[in-house]
């Protein structure tokens, strides 16, 4: 079985997997991470999102063989070394922006990528950035508030 | 009385949430003086239904070795935050810190059997059981302490897990008081409960303890459970509902897919077990291409569905008959209208998952089922195995919104685990299987007729409702589990009729002297079961659309028209509140605000909803701009939790109303993923605003479902106001608005 070394959350990880194994399965099954979730396996819902070179991307249909030396960051990799949460994570807690929380991984990852590229987005930009991410509990109104709260937190307000 | 410090919400969340340090056994150390204890009042009302078979304190509450308390609930966490609500009421009655109370949710053999976590029943049943058990526990602990410390109860203080004498000379925690025993006495009335004005937690927006864990990607969901040597499996679903396996060629599977452990075939049930999860995905694809199935009969044509459903319905059952509708209809103006609702999906974001391990004696199952005891009864029947030999542990999954595929995935895992003792088998459903095999919310038809007198008062009302059952939940009939219909000796599933809540809210809550409800049950073509709010979404969509039509015919304001037919002051108040809330909303051309009201099940919580829409008259596109709700659930346990549920209910119902419909063609379900069954995405999300009317002296009702039924009708009424087009057939699509 082929071996792959990926850059994950700031360190290198080597795993053995069939080359067509999607990144999501490597992260959850081989590397035992909980952040990225299996939602559809079709890149339609966003539950499995990770950051790939800083951009939010689904991991469920991306074969491990195509990852190469891209920097992968998962939900586990957002807090700093001392465990301090990323402002987006903090804001989701403060706004209680979850019900079942299954989609939260993708919501947080997509929001982190958004704020990295656009530090002060308006409502329409937030909605557009999260368009791929589905939430069936329908907590979206709070998630939008959480993203705005993260903007404020980041600015130290 | 102990007051929480008054702070801004943000600071409050920080202080009580993850940032705060827990004080598990803090006792009185931080207090300069004794806390003033809230008074107790004697509760003599009804005890919750859940206490009928579990009436001892220790069925609900046990003291741990360190003196902390564990509360046992037979309900499961579905994302509704029930764990927090139960923690709040128990900590309240026992005057403990929230961190001193842990809640253990459903597990067979350990927690009470509370049936299903459904019907907005967890607060009235489980949380209220925890309240009375905790209140009774406090009484008993004080009695015990009085004896042990040789001090009258009036000289004792029970606070933050300790009982101490007022003079400070002695103190003991609950474990020291009980010396390893538990409180085995019954909860008997009157129960001395804390006076509501003395609450520290109940009614407040206490943050959930699980959200910080979610953002840190801790192990929460069944999908996150990993056991040493755990194997992965998937099940190959038949080609159609009634297909039988004719041929399966698994030769070559072992070389095509690495990590193959075994293929399991039992009648038309086909499962495959592998070492790695993705190997199971590939294996089931391989087997799909090498399997032959008998053809399942075609579904009716989608465009003829409603006439088909009327044709196959049983003769009607009269559910309600007040006064004499036929006689009263003489000489007054009558109106009628017909409404339809398609099959709807639960559409959980996480497809079903189940884990099972047979240790040679006991079959252990981990499941996100809504009812682990009833599911155990079904699996016991399916495997012909003694119930006592099956141990089920509830673990949260993704939100399910009713009976979805959790139980089926658990049954899959159970069947496979029995073939490989000693191994944990984890079954994960695919998105396609979830979309095409889940039990949908039934399609419904509602024919309404009303007669109005010359003063514009409704004198007669008739509802004829056509519906399949809204409950096929697993229970003692093993055929409720999907797998049992495909095993070597398959079980047949029978219709349920009334049991399913098909005519829930079919009788308007309005004062109408002559009222008749006729239910026409059918055993429809698609697999169905309970979907959030059951029949109420369809019945209230029709009733509240019709109320607007009647108001218009009488030239009345829709809210005034409703108010003239209501006597219940709580119903009147939510309607007045919604009117007042929306008074200042500004409308542009092509926009409208619609209203609707319901009292869920006609016996529980009250909700009035307003929706502001814009309709593009060229394209027919509807944009929901804002939704408001005014809600009375009686006593509120967690202010933020209830608002979160109500907001979600409105947005989910708006998605149903404007977008959703299960589609089928030939013998296939064609809404098989999120492209073919679209739901609301972010650009479609409106602003939402919830106004709570808190009534601490009234019974606490659940709020998981109450905002959904009026939302559908409020949208239909708003679309009519904005465009002049009334749509009777859900979903309200641009084509129907332009037609």
From TrEMBL, chain A:
Pfam families per UniProt: Fer2, Fer2_2
Name listed for the protein in its UniProt record: (2Fe-2S)-binding protein
Domain 2Fe-2S ferredoxin-type, residue spans: 2-78
Organism: Algoriphagus pacificus
PANTHER family (UniProt xref): BLR6046 PROTEIN, OXIDOREDUCTASE WITH IRON-SULFUR SUBUNIT
Domain of life of the organism encoding this protein: Bacteria
Keywords in alphabetical order: 2Fe-2S, Iron, Iron-sulfur, Metal-binding
Lineage of producing organism: Bacteria, Pseudomonadati, Bacteroidota, Cytophagia, Cytophagales
From TrEMBL, chain B:
Transmembrane parts of this sequence: 12-31
Keywords tagged on the record: Membrane, Transmembrane, Transmembrane helix
Chain ranges of the Aldehyde oxidase/xanthine dehydrogenase a/b hammerhead domain: 216-297
UniProt keyword Mitochondrion present: no
Origin superkingdom: Bacteria
One Pfam family, short name: MoCoBD_1
PANTHER family, per database record: ALDEHYDE DEHYDROGENASE (PTHR47495), BLL3820 PROTEIN (PTHR47495:SF1)
Descriptive protein name: Xanthine dehydrogenase family protein molybdopterin-binding subunit
